[in-house]
Amino acid sequence: MDKRYIRMTVSISVFIVFFIFNAGMIYAACNMRCSVNEDSVIICDGDTKFDTVRKCGEPDYVENIGFIFSGRFGSVTNSTDTEGSYEELAKSVEKWYYNCGEGRFMKVITFEGNQVVMIENGDYGSGPQKCW
Asked: Are 64 and 30 in contact (CB under 8 A)?
């Protein structure tokens, strides 16, 4: 077989695998759809609280989970001395619950700080459909 043909086939195969993998990642990161004013909008990981309220309205319930603390050490060395420092960051963790309607799962959005980090299904909801 011609070497150019083999290279081209391998390149195309790698591109297809890369495209399929990334398309799956985009779908997994955006898994809540809201219906506001007859328009349909999507909530994704990384969206802010403001974006979420703008797209889906106020949540049916907000649960304050607590805080996540993270920190880092740093040091500066001069010619005669070494100075150290520690910096700590606290992010609030909240779960927002949206009742998506009769026969549909509720959606639970987890925020760390101001950003969506996870969207998962809860129990079955009730009432009219407003998200899926």
From this structure: no
Average model confidence (pLDDT) across the chain: 80
Q: Which one-letter amino acid corresponds to residue 82? A: T
> For residue 57, which of 100, 11, 102, 12 has the smallest C-alpha distance?
100
Whether residue 26 is predicted with pLDDT greater than 50 in this model: the reply is: no
CA distance to 7, 49, 95, 123, per residue, from 43 (Å): 40, 10, 14, 19
Question: 77-94: per-residue pLDDT in tens?
Answer: 666 666 777 888 899 999
Q: Which residues contact 42 (CB under 8 A, 6 or more apart)?
A: 30, 32, 33, 34, 55
Cα–Cα distance, 110 to 94 (Å, whole number): 6
Question: Of 129, 84, 86, 80, nearest to 104 (Cα)?
Answer: 129
CA atoms of 25 and 91, how far apart (whole Å): 25
Query: In the prediction, which pLDDT does 27 show?
Result: 45
